């Protein structure tokens, strides 16, 4: 006796092919990985090259503020000008002994040194005195003798990894009380062929 033959469950009905929908998540994996890797590389390049790296560093070794009061009445005057003496004039000398180090991989040449002191919200700049002016200051004010060192000279070349040390003298037409009101101070050392370095003062 033959067993009955049952028709298959799919007999007479159309076959349905299992096709993945367009835009399936699998098709997005590779592009997403490429984007993530690209962003990572771009961020690494920006972190390495996008920021200004200093070519030099600076260190303050000593700092001295010396108030000076000049009384024009005690100085010789031109004939016929007697009695026309001006009031006392205040001045502050800022003496800074500093070290500048070349932290780049090429020689750099010192160009200039400028002090910037903020008083009452305003920036006040003073260019470092020339060596001959520094000599005159020490001659005029013997009390400064203990602060005398070799001046930091412009146009000196610093080899990679080497340093220059020297004295910078700046002047401001202020009294000691005016100086004491300053809220920020620094020295910008610039170079002919490299980025400047800003050295904070006390």
Give a written overview of the molecule.
With 202 residues, the chain is α+β, with helices and mostly antiparallel strands. It folds into 2 domains: 34 residues; 129 residues, Immunoglobulin-like (Sandwich). Helix content is 20%, strand content 35%. The chain contains 3 helices and 8 strands; from the N terminus they run αββββαββαββ. Strands 3, 4, 5, 7 and 8 form a 5-stranded antiparallel beta sheet that branches. A 3-stranded antiparallel beta sheet has the order 1-2-6, with no helix packed on it. The radius of gyration is 37 Å and the shape is elongated.
Secondary-structure element pattern, one letter each: HEEEEHEEHEE
- CATH fold node name of the largest domain: Immunoglobulin-like
Describe the largest sheet. 5 strands, antiparallel
Mean pLDDT over all positions:
81
CATH architecture of the largest domain: Sandwich
The top-level CATH class of the largest domain is Mainly Beta
Number of domains: 2
The N- to C-terminal Cα distance equals 113 Å
Q: Output the structural class.
A: alpha+beta
Provide key terms for this protein.
single chain; 202 residues; alpha+beta; Immunoglobulin-like; 2 domains; 3-stranded antiparallel β-sheet; 20% helix; elongated
